[in-house]
Amino acid sequence: MEMLIDFPGGDRVDAHFEQFNVATDQPLPGYMPQDPTPFSLFLASIGTCAGIYVLGFCKQRGISADGIHIRQVNKANPANGMVENIDLEIQVPPDFPTRYYDALIRSADQCKVKKHLEHPPHFNVYTKVV
Length: 130
What we know:
Layout: E1 4-9, E2 12-17, E3 20-24, H1 38-60, E4 69-76, E5 83-91, H2 101-108, H3 112-118
Antiparallel strand pairs: 1-2, 2-3, 4-5
């Protein structure tokens, strides 16, 4: 997949791929961003990816996903600000079958974003005159 990243003005940096346009913004002191930061989108991709797998699990078994939520807590090292631990709590309604709890966890563990973090790609960063 190829993405084009551009700079539409201010502190915005947007990504364009397939039929999508993803806007990001960077907060400055006293300034309210219009869009999420790139890092916030990155973190959100972890929980939403896990959610895709949990939703797929429910759909495959004809189980309603109503009332299911994933609570994501990102814990950063205060010394360097780097996220060191991410908790994904799959919240289920009281009537959700308990026999599927472990299977929900296994489903969420299949998240491609999580797998890429566990086995990161190599980055090649370079310039090119166009």
